[in-house]
Design goal:
The complex is a heterodimer of chains A (113) and B (113). Chain A is an all-beta fold and 113 residues long. Chain A is 0% helix and 55% strand. Chain A is built from no helices and eleven strands. In chain A, strand 7 and strand 8 (71-76) form a beta hairpin. The radius of gyration of chain A is 14 Å and the shape is globular. Chain B contains no helices and eleven strands. In chain B, strands 2, 4, 5, 6, 9, 10 and 11 form a seven-stranded mixed beta sheet that branches. Classes of the chains: A mainly beta (113), B mainly beta (113). The interface between A and B is medium-sized, with 25 and 25 residues.
Chain lengths: 113, 113
Amino acid sequence: ELKVEQNPLFLSMQEGKNYTIYCNYSTTSDRLYWYRQDPGKSLESLFVLLSNGAVKQEGRLMASLDTKARLSTLHITAAVHDLSATYFCAGGNYGGATNKLIFGTGTLLAVQP
Amino acid sequence: EPEVTQTPSHQVTQMGQEVILRCVPISNHLYFYWYRQILGQKVEFLVSFYNNEISEKSEIFDDQFSVERPDGSNFTLKIRSTKLEDSAMYFCASSGNNNQPQHFGDGTRLSIL
């Protein structure tokens, strides 16, 4: 069964700084997703990574996937307070009629002014 | 943009009572899911539903749980006899196909007293 681990669990950073959140998974995952969750809110899809070497960028966030290392990263460039949220990675496998996501533990990001 | 809608937003129920959580997935989506998130923890898969039947369920989804798509638009999760440990945020999600990210509703916070 696929297991997904994230680190760090909590990240406090200053505005303007760069940092990376890591997502490791235990077995083959056909695709890797990144979601953002604000407190008490739903999960917002950020990125879908479908193949080895995939890199996607949106604003100050960039996600990448290395299927050989079973590692995805979410890089934050020049953080701003609005990025404060919990970030989850999730993996999944094509399985016919199912498409369940296995979520990581989440990284709570707090960007300090 | 189309959304997944869930009702109610908050449900308070006595232990042992039945609850039904309701979801309206995005209209042209074919895959439907329920996940739960215990406060402060990661998101856990409960069940996936495709072509009018359950395609996969987790160990959490025991005999007390059931899902239904009664009328082609609603997708419901029923817990027959609630327990204290069922207290959590329950998210409904839908997707059009296996390549697309799952779109999540805002969740129902279930509190069992």
